[in-house]
Amino acid sequence: MTPILELSGIGKRFLSVTALDNVDFDLRAGEIHALMGENGAGKSTLIKTMTGVYPPDAGTIRMEGAAILPRSPDEAVRHGISTVYQEVNLVPNLSVMENLLLGRMPKGPFGIKWGAARERADRAIARLDLKVDVRAPLSSLSIAMQQMVAIVRALDVSAKVLILDEPTSSLDASEVDSLFAVIRRLRDEGLAIVFVTHFLDQVYAISDRITVLRNGLKVGTWTVAELPRLELVSQMIGRDASSLDRSALTVLSSAQGQPIIGAENLRRRNSVANLTFDIRPGEVLGLAGLLGSGRTETVRLLFGIDGPDSGTLSLDGRRISRLRPREAIRHGIGYLSEDRKREGLFPELSIRENMLVLHQVKHGWYRRVSKAQQKAMAKELAERLRVQPPDVERPIQYLSGGNQQKVLLARWLAVEPRLLLLDEPTRGIDVGAKFEIMSLVESLRQAGRSFVFVSSELPEVVRSSTKVVVMRDRKAVGTLEGDAISEERIVREIAAP
Amino acid sequence: MSRLPTWAWAAMVLIGLLLFNLFLTPGFFHVEVRDGHLYGSLIDVLNRAVPVGLLSLGMTLVIATGGVDLSVGAIMAIAGTVAAELIARPTGTPFEGGKSAPGLAAPMALLTALGCGLFNGLLIATLNFQPIVATLLLMVAGRGVAQLLANGQIVTFSEPAFASLARGATFGLPNPVWMLLGAFVVFSLLTRATALGLFVEATGSNPVAARYVGIDARAVKIIAYALSGLCAGLAGLVIAADIQAADANNAGLYLELDAILAVSVGGTALAGGRFSLVGSMVGALLMQTLTTTILTRGVSPETTLVLKAAVVVVVCLLQAPSFREIFRRRVRA
Asked: Which of A433, A403, A437, A435 is nearest to A420 (CA)?
């Protein structure tokens, strides 16, 4: 069968970083092709070369045999390549019809021909058998339905190739089912579909073929039958599951004492389920799993940003219905978010203020820590974590990502939390800083402090955790302790059907 | 790069304006002592800058939290009316009858203004109203409330003790100037000698991050709007004492806009975050110096507003690093 879309030898560099290197990819009409890979593997970049967001530096793209080079998403759409992104990229305040036809409203001498527009929208909706009033504002629809509207919009331009970039990440199980029904129907009509997701179950539920990328290289393409789950996960993380051993593992004695936090069957709708574990003084609880497996959601429950719908949470042995961040902080729990910009930084404020704002909060607003004392503390912390530049009066927005991260870590160290929740603390920072942060965690652990540690890098999780909860598809699927912690076991748990 | 304060540009324009007057407006810098009071254009500028100056102190905190308070002009009218009626007890109003209570006038007016500010703060912090909408409510309805209180009249009174709030002088300087100075000192201590200033800045800079470090953003916002209301009450008292009357329709009309301008000219970003009380004072003085300059030079009053707008645009452009960069390149080329 000849491919409808064929990419060969695609290369793309950003400054000095190679995002894609000599990647081939082919897509057939009437198939659902899953594109898999860990964070940073190059999935998004590959998709963006097809959709004209980043024209490739090298290689060719052929659509039905003819070479094309889309230079903008618009151009890609004209070639028949449409995309639906993870977040619904539509206008919530406009009606479904307006969203469907935005930028391509049928026009007459007196402006938009609303009657014709309405008809066209109705027809497009009917094609997928959706039950939607096209006059309703988009925001009145469920997220799943909005996602479908986005698909309908993508199809309205006689698309031959439909790219779905993590379309299910904000949907619940039944919504996923109805979305899949629509996707299958489109495949049977002969559309070629690229499906990007982090959910393994969904890959096996719907895909025909799977292509795996890793570090900007193509690892291979298989039919679903050829690639069992365990094999898929090994290919994605680049480790042969059978060859993984635990020789590098330092076995840590399991900790004693009353749990700081205990979770039993904790669940939050559309977020995470099945969480049962406790964290004792001196423990590092690793949360392992692929991106989107519910790791961040778990940490947010523990810090009280979100509340659980069911299950029990206990704090120092006392049952509580839910936490709030302020209470969590009062009880000595800290949270270092993976989203520095949105959830951590005060960009205009200085390094000193960013470091010590929390210390000041604990002190109370009316008892200001003197500037001299603040300076001394900030300097000491900056030296301990080797923050560059060492001038603590500079606004934090001018620091590199790694140094910003160190400042945010210092913010928590300044208040000496009993339990610190670290969500991807080492992402996007250089090796030296990574090592410094991880050895700091270990020395604090030995001093009796506890951590929850989320990382996409399995060796880091294995090396520093005393206990690992494995997560898959937003559920905790297994717990490993002591000797049992190894990359191999974790990979097996992630891949287990 | 040197670290100039954000209000440096406004200060430079202010100094430029003063220099202009020094050379081209005869008598602008002439100050004389009459009956132990200082008189002169400069003193006049200070005195007239007081209402906007007071408003801009509260407005600075509100804007730093990422909000805005449009209701301060209306709160001035309410506070002035409450004070006037407690003194005059006019017929046909809720304050009719009873004994004239000049001693109660100021405290009650301030309490009412504080209540108005709390109302704004509660709408915004607990019911999540958009600040512009919440304060617009009181901006529009507040004048109605003041008119209802005054039964549609302009309430006049004659009470020398109360009038001296605005007309008297202490150590040569008019009393309102002392009030502004006092309020400025109190605000500076309140925000910088405690951590309130830092919490306000953190809340405005990144509300999500502020929540995750345990800052009670609700309390911070309520405090900011309450203080803004209180400042408006004080400004309302000054105006009412000055004209010895409360005019529900016109007292403080559009002054909220002058206050917002003063704050923004003073270098506090309307998006929230870093704020500077000194900057807002410089801004308020700049606006008033400009008005007085235009008036003393006999320019028609209609032109005043246009000139004001032009100066604001110039200061805002000077504050923008990207604009200074263009300017620098032009100069070099």
From this structure: A437
